[in-house]
Each structure stands twice: as structure tokens, then as C-alpha cells.
Design a protein that fits this description.
The protein is globular. By secondary structure, it is α+β, with helices and mostly antiparallel strands. Helix 1 packs across helix 2, helix 2 crosses helix 3 and helix 2 runs antiparallel to helix 10. Strand 22 and strand 23 form a beta hairpin.
Length: about 450
């Protein structure tokens, strides 16, 4: 199925909250009557949503409450205490501004869920200014519009093909799997959608210039994944998700053809070690802090180690992490042994051997979660153990490459390509080999 008209998207902003405070800028309609701008509160009350104004006067209660802007482009709402970076090292709460419809619903018995219903193009306007900085080069912004649009439409098509209804009666797509009550969430699990606070004319121009454009392969919209920094080589889809691969997501060396030092695969242990300990030329090997400051959101720029990084965990820290993350008491950790690596050196099967237990962890995200209070930057790492005491290493140092799963487009690499003069089409062709650009609406 190809989408011939712009769809309406439902985005989950806050889930299962006892109380949500928000503000309206401009008039909104609520159950057929006008609601003026001001401060409001939605409270979970015995299985329903109770909405009140700034003077604590209750306006309405019900299983679902919808506020529709009178003027779509001029009106917006501000939601307070929106969580971003869930379980990542940049996790925090923000106040964020959004356009479109705001709905509160009590889907179960755990609290209120806030959902924003908005057209796909307006959704993307926020996404490209949330994933990276809108101060990035225009050609990079265009490329990100196309891959963010393609990824979302590909997910909606997968749901439809799996038998999930394509849309509800009012035309809002629904997700009965990962996100049962809306299409996508507002954070890194899907795509960052952090409101309109960073939107600028450059982002709006990039969106208008690419309206309705997607990447396609074999008659289907491409599942155009992306991550922050591939580390020099992009990864295979099956290393990170289900056991399937796509021709347009082949691992590539993230550099110009004449600059290649390491070619994929670097999956053998000796090759991975040489690659991770090296400092090879790559688009994402950015040493200019000015470029990083220009292309990264402020909370991403707080982290300076993107291309290569290291983390040292003491024996007691590692034991505590593994007990907390896996529920297994391994005792003294004797070794962390990579059993299988992907083409970029990312580990997708790691054996943990302790004095009390031994277990293998599969898939890169599970490995990253198990070895960090939040997430390791990536699973492309080698393990170095320190001096032993009674046969048990006192510490382990993980030396790694890249930030994220590494599949598809490398955001820092693509931004660097644009800064070097590469156009949108060249950027997309580099990361998504063989995919074709098509305007579908």
C-alpha cells in the first residue's frame, strides 16, 4: 500500500500519569464549547479524566477528553513535565509546546495518557528539530525529513499488513502492538518529537521542499532506520532487531570511497579490536566542536564522546549492575566474552561468566542495558580486564565505537557530509544503497 494522501498521526506524549498540567495558547474547543487560553489540569479520577481550569473549577470528566484548536497554525498547547531520553543518560523532564489536537484518555486503571493528533507533515516539522538541531545544513535537514517520513509510513504499513486496522473511524492510525493507544511515542523509542520550540525557517523550508517524499525499494517504502553515530561502519538490521535484512540497509564504511581504511565486516574479534582501537577517517569522526555544537541538540552536546569512548566498571559496580538489570547473582564476574558480532563490530551475543552463574545475552540493546545504569553508547566494544585478585578481575574497561544501534543513516555522519557540500540525494544514496526517492503525495 502507498499513502496517496497525508495521514493524521497520533503521538503519545505522556503515559499513565496521575496528573498532567498544561497551558493553552489561543482558543480551543471542548465538547462543542470554547475554552479560552490559560492554565489547566487533567487528573485521573476513578477510571476517568477530570479536567479543571486554573481556579480548580471542573470543566468535564470522561474516559476521553479532546481539545481542538480553533486556529491550527496559531494556537498551541504547552505540556509540563514531559519525559525525554527514557532510561538513557540524557533522561530529564521538559515543558514542551505542540500544535494540533490534545486528547487525554484513561485507557486502563493506571492513569492518564496525553495524545497529540496532528498531520504527518506538521509532526515531521518537530521531529527534524528534535532529533538534531535545526541549525544543521539544509541538505541534511532535507535528508532527515525523508527518512523520518519513510520510517513512520513503513511502520504504519507493517501494522496494516499484519492485520491491524489501518485507521480508526476518524482517520487516526492506531497501534495495537508496541503502542496500543497511539501510533508512535514522542521519544527515542520511535522518533524524537519534542514540540515546536526549536522550529526555524530552515527546517520549514526543508520540510516544504521534500513534502510527501519517501525512499522506496522493490515497491515498498523503506524502513529507514537511523542512529546518532555509527562509529565508522553502519550495522545490519538483523543484528539489532528481528532476524531479517534489507538490501538498502547494507553495512557501509562511513567515508568517501577514497578514504576507506576499514571495510565491513569487522565481525571477527581481531578485526573488531583493530577497528575499535583505531581512529580511522569517517564522516562521523568529527573533531570540530563548532560543527557538533551546530548540529546537535543541547542535551546531546553534553556528551563529547561519540566516535570512540571508554567506560571502566569496578568488580562491585559490574556485579551490582548485572544483578539489577538481569536479576541474576553472577557472583564474582570472571569474564565478559563476545560470542557474535555484526558487520560494524557491534556485539549481539555476549557471554557473562561468574563464580555463581553463566548466561548469554542476545541483541545489542539488551547488552547495552545490562552493562550500564542507563545504556552504553553502543555494543561495539572490546573488553579489557584489570589485575586479578583471587582469580577475579578487579575491574573491566569497555572501549567502544559509536553511539546507538548504527543501522541506516548515521546522523552525525550525514550532518558532516552536508557540511562538506554533499547534497540530500548523495547523503541518502550513501546510507541507503539502491533505494529510490519517490513523491507519494
Amino acid at each position: 500500500m502507498i499513502f496517496h494522501t497525508e495521514p493524521l498521526i497520533s503521538v503519545g506524549l505522556i503515559e499513565n500519569a496521575a496528573q498532567i498540567d498544561f497551558e493553552l495558547q489561543g482558543d480551543y474547543m471542548l465538547d462543542g464549547r470554547a475554552v479560552p487560553e490559560g492554565c489547566y489540569r487533567a487528573v485521573y479520577a476513578a477510571g476517568v479524566v477530570a479536567l479543571s481550569d486554573g481556579s480548580s473549577r471542573e470543566l468535564i470528566r470522561g474516559r476521553q477528553v479532546c481539545l481542538n484548536p480553533v486556529a491550527l497554525q496559531d494556537n498551541y498547547f504547552t505540556l509540563h513535565n514531559v519525559a525525554i531520553g527514557h532510561e538513557f543518560h540524557w533522561e530529564r523532564l521538559q515543558s514542551q509546546r505542540f500544535r494540533g489536537e490534545l486528547a487525554f484518555a484513561a485507557f486502563g486503571h493506571e492513569g492518564i495518557t496525553a495524545v497529540n493528533r496532528i498531520g504527518l507533515e506538521a509532526y515531521l516539522e518537530s521531529v527534524i528539530c528534535s532529533e538534531m538541531s535545526p541549525e544543521s545544513d539544509g541538505e541534511f535537514l532535507k535528508a532527515h525529513c525523508i527518512i523520518s517520513r519513510s520510517w513512520l509510513l513503513a511502520q504504519l504499513e507493517l501494522k496494516r499488513a499484519a492485520g491491524v486496522p489501518a485507521s480508526s473511524p476518524d482517520g487516526v492510525f492506531t497501534d495495537a502492538a508496541t503502542h496500543k493507544n497511539f501510533d508512535v511515542c514522542n521519544d527515542d523509542h520511535c522518533q524524537r518529537y519534542h514540540g515546536i520550540g526549536r522550529v526555524n525557517p530552515a527546517a520549514q523550508h526543508a520540510l516544504a521542499a521534500t513534502r510527501g517524499q519517501v525512499l522506496m525499494s522493490d515497491g515498498e517504502i523503506c524502513d529507514t532506520r537511523f542512529s546518532k553515530c555509527c562509529g565508522g561502519i553502519s550495522e545490519r538490521f538483523s543484528t539489532c532487531w528481528q532476524d531479517a535484512d534489507f538490501a538498502y540497509l547494507k553495512p557501509v564504511a562511513d567515508c568517501a570511497p577514497g578514504s576507506v581504511v576499514f571495510c565491513p565486516p569487522v565481525s571477527a574479534e581481531a578485526d573488531a579490536r583493530r577497528f575499535i582501537l583505531a581512529d580511522p577517517p569517517a564522516f562521523c569522526n568529527v573533531t570540530d566542536p563548532g560543527l557538533l555544537a551546530r548540529v546537535l541538540p543541547d542535551f546531546d552536546f553534553e556528551t563529547q564522546q561519540f566516535f570512540r569512548w571508554s567506560v571502566t566498571l569496578s568488580q562491585s559496580e559490574l556485579q551490582g549492575l548485572l544483578l539489577n538489570k538481569t536479576g541474576i547473582d553472577f557472583g564474582g564476574i570472571k569474564s565478559l566474552s563476545p560470542l557474535a558480532r555484526g558487520d560494524s563490530g557491534r556485539i549481539y551475543e555476549l557471554k557473562i561468566t561468574g563464580t555463581k552463574a553463566e548466561k548469554s545475552i542476545s541483541k545489542e540493546l539488551a547488552i547495552r542495558r545490562a552493562l550500564s545504569p542507563s545504556h552504553l553508547y553502543s555494543s561495539a566494544f572490546i573488553v579489557e580486564s584489570s589485575a586479578e585478585k583471587d582469580g577475579i578481575p578487579e575491574a573491566f574497561t569497555l572501549r567502544g565505537a559509536g553511539w546507538g544501534h548504527g543501522v541506516g543513516l548515521c546522523q552525525i555522519g550525514a550532518a558532516a557530509m552536508a557540511a562538506q557540500g554533499y547534497g540530500c540525494s548523495a547523503i541518502l544514496a550513501h546510507y541507503f544503497r539502491g533505494a529510490a526517492l519517490k513523491t507519494i503525495y
